[in-house]
Design a protein that fits this description.
two-stranded antiparallel ribbon; 8 helices; single chain; alpha+beta
Length: 242
């Protein structure tokens, strides 16, 4: 009898640790048995999927599924993936879910194993909406920058201040260079604008902003063309550039 009590206490402790672990994670977690019934989930899962309190108590599988599907842009694809994974107990999966309200979740799934046997499935969900929006905004800003750069009436060359490697140029540089600008990216700037100085670009190495410094630009045909060179230090995506 004493041994039974000890085992009961150990089991209770293990369950408490498991629950505490589930609640401490930033992801929504759902544990489903081999029959497809929700065995365990944390509060984050309920919050992310906006499940009503009475549904959490009843754990009504069909109603829970209805609430989930109503929120998704592509519920058919969601269901198809679920059915595919339940048909492959050992499969591991990762994909994204798009919501009607604009949210995006990353969905991960792996087998639930007991004594080495797959007895169900663990699902975890991570809200990546803000990261996705930030990435989209960054892409939009970069596209806007390219448009603005290409419409400037002057040649613009963006250079890494440490390596002096050309990272970006605009379309007007092609007119000055006399050829495709994609041949310039990846080369050191002094070879283009200060070809007589093989060591380094004396203007860039000053480490200061310089206005209207007259230089000669090496064109693709080997000729030199006089240009007024302006150097400005700028912040581009949190990094300093010239």
């Amino acid at each position: 009898e004493h041994r039974v009590e000890e085992r009961t206490c150990e089991l209770g402790h293990s369950l408490a640790v498991l629950q505490a672990t589930l609640e401490s994670t930033a992801d929504g977690v759902l544990v489903v048995n081999s029959a497809g019934r929700a065995e365990q989930f944390n509060r984050k899962f309920a919050e992310m999927w906006r499940l009503p309190a009475d549904l959490l108590v009843s754990r009504d599988d069909k109603r829970m599924q209805t609430v989930v599907l109503e929120q998704l842009k592509d519920p058919a694809s969601f269901l198809a993936k679920v059915e595919e994974l339940y048909a492959q107990p050992e499969a591991v999966s990762s994909d994204s879910l798009e919501f009607k309200d604009g949210r995006t979740f990353e969905r991960y799934s792996q087998p639930l194993r007991v004594n080495g046997q797959a007895t169900g499935r663990v699902w975890s969900f991570r809200d990546v909406t803000e990261g996705k929006r930030a990435a989209e905004l960054l892409r939009e800003n970069e596209a806007m920058q390219r448009v603005l750069l290409d419409h400037l009436p002057v040649g613009v060359i963006i250079v890494d201040p440490i390596t002096r490697i050309i990272e970006r140029v605009n379309g007007h540089v092609a007119t000055l260079f006399g050829g495709p600008v994609d041949q310039l990216v990846g080369h050191r700037c002094h070879a283009l604008v200060c070809p007589a100085n093989e060591g380094a670009c004396p203007v860039c190495d000053l480490g200061k902003s310089v206005d209207n410094s007259e230089r000669e630009m090496l064109r693709i045909d080997g000729s030199l063309r006089p240009v007024l060179k302006t150097v400005k230090r700028i912040q581009l995506h949190g990094q300093e550039k010239l």
